[in-house]
Amino acid sequence: MAVTRTFSIIKPDATRRNLTGAVTKMLEDAGLRVVASKRIHMTREQAEGFYAVHKERSFFGELVDFMISGPVVVQVLEGEDAVKRNRDVMGATNPADADEGTIRKTYAESIEANSVHGSDSDENAKTEIEFFFAEDEIVG
Ligand code: ADP
Ligand code: MG
Questions:
Q1: Distance (Å, rounded) from C-alpha 66 to C-alpha 56?
Q2: pTM for the full model?
């Protein structure tokens, strides 16, 4: 299996509860390596741009408000089959449906405040990484 990269966000509900380290430990324990990381407070424009694929969905406005409600930690993760590996440890979007031992089952507050974002394909991972990081900020 090839070593690939994915993009992760530790969302405002998790940073508010001081869970940056706990969430990152679960990512690392799942075989992912943090090769870039920064704590930022997204602007509304950044959040709207990042989630543009969801702009027709009913919850778009609330999602943007939530994502700018506090700081987030954006990360590039590297590992074998990184996109799937990250999605597996994240768990289902709705924590009520997430498997035991996943980040969302362990920490998410709700379907919206679900603690983490993870890219859903290699193609989207590349786009999302480039949205937040310059190549020289990623050190594998
Ligand atoms: P995922 O983050 O698991 O890839 P989606 O891409 O479908 O899920 O949705 C993006 C984000 O939008 C979710 O992580 C969650 O924060 C929010 N979201 C998804 N569905 C809902 C919903 N029904 N109500 C409120 N927020 C939602
Ligand atoms: Mg998604």
A1: 17
A2: 0.98
